C-alpha cells in the first residue's frame, strides 16, 4: 500500500507541479495575447475533459479491480481475456468519440464556446488525443490490477514532460521565431496532449514487454477458468458505471454550485453579475484548483487500494480486509491532515504567488483547505466500498450527501453568503463520509480505537506545525507587506521546508511514523540521526 501510494502520489504531484510551472514561460511568450490565448486554451480543454470522461467511462478502474479479483483466484488467463475485451472496447470508444469531437467541432464550439470560431481548430487538435487516451487509460488500469503502480506513475510524469516540452517549443517557434499568431500557438499547445499520450503509451508498452514473460508464466501455471462463456463486456460496464458516478462526485457538487450560485446570491445580496462571477471564481475555480492538488493525494491512495482490497475480498480473508482498511485510513489521515492544515497555514503566500494578494481569496482558500479533508475522505471511502463490491451502497450514500447539499444550499448562502456553497459542500460530504464509514465498520469491524489514537497524534503534530508556520507568516508579512509576489514565493518555500521538518521530526521522534508506515522508517530515523 505504502509503495504503491508513494509511486502514484509522486507521479501526480510532479505532474501537477509541471502543469503549473509551464504557465510562466508560456504566458511570457504569448505577450499581450495571453488573456485571449488562455481563454481559448481553457475552452478547448474543458470540452476535451468532458470527452475523456465519457470515452474512458470508468473502465480503467473497473479493469484494475477485476484483474486483481481474478489474480487472487489464480485465474490469470481469465483476467487477460477480460483485459483484451476491455482493450477492444477502449479502441472503439477512442475512435467513436475522437471522430465525434473532430467532425462535430463546429457544433461544440457553438454549444460550449459561445460560437467562437477560433475554438474549432483547438477542439480538432484535442480530438486527435481522444483517439488514443482510452488505450493509455486501460494500460494503466491493467498494470494497477497487478498492484504495479510504478509504470503508471512514471508514464504520467513522462507524459507531462513530453507535453510541456512540445507545447513550449512550438509556442516559442510560432510566437518568437516566426512572429505568428496566438491561435496557431494554442492549437499546437493543445495538440501536445496527443504527443504526451503517445510517449506515455510507449513507456507502458516497454514496461509490459519487460513483464510479459512473468505474465505468461502466471497465466500458464494458474487455474483454468471455470466459466468460458463469460460476458466480459457486460462485466466491464457493470463495474465501470459506479466508477463513473463516484469518480464524478466532487465535480457534480461543483457543477451544482456553478449552476445555482448567482441566482441564490441575488436572493440575499445586491451585487452585479461581475461581482457574483468574481465570488464564484474565488472558491469555484481559483481555490478549488489549489486544493485539488492535495485531494489528488487521496486519489493516488485510492488507485493503490483498489487491487489490494479487491484481491483480499476474492480470497475471503475478512481479518486481512479489516487490517487493510485500517492501514488505508491511517495512511490517508497521516498525509491528508498535515497537507490540509499546511495549505491553510501558507494560504497567504500561496494565493499571492498564484493569483496576487486578495484577502477574500485567502479566506476562501483557508476554508476550502479544511473541506479538502472531507473531499479526500469521500474519494478514499467510496473507492474502498467499490473495491469490496459494495457499489450500490456507495452510490446511495453519495446521492444522500448530494441531496443534503442541495437542501441546505439556500439557507447556507443566506447565512454565510459567498462562503455558503462551501459550508453546504462540507455538510453534504460530511453526511456521505459518515454513512460510508459507519457501513464499512459494520461490514468489517476494524479497530476504531487504534485509528483514533493515531489520528489524535497526527492532529496534535499538525497543529504544532500549523502554529509555527502561522508565526512565520505574522512576522514576515508585518514587516514586508502583503502584495509582493517574489517575496511571497520565498516565504512559501521557507514555510514549506519548516513545516515539513517540524511534522517529520515529531512523527519520527515519537515513532508514530513507524506504526503507520512500518519498520522501514527506522532507516530514515538513522539517516537524519533522530533517536
From TrEMBL:
Its main location: membrane. Coiled coil: none annotated. The chain crosses the membrane at residues 7-27, 47-68, 89-113, 119-139, 160-179, 191-209, 236-256, 290-310, 331-351, 363-381, 393-413, 419-437, 458-480, 486-508. Pfam families: Polysacc_synt. It is a multi-pass membrane protein. CDD domains: MATE_SpoVB_like. It is found in: Cell membrane. Keywords: Cell membrane, Membrane, Transmembrane, Transmembrane helix. This is Polysaccharide biosynthesis C-terminal domain-containing protein. It comes from Companilactobacillus baiquanensis.
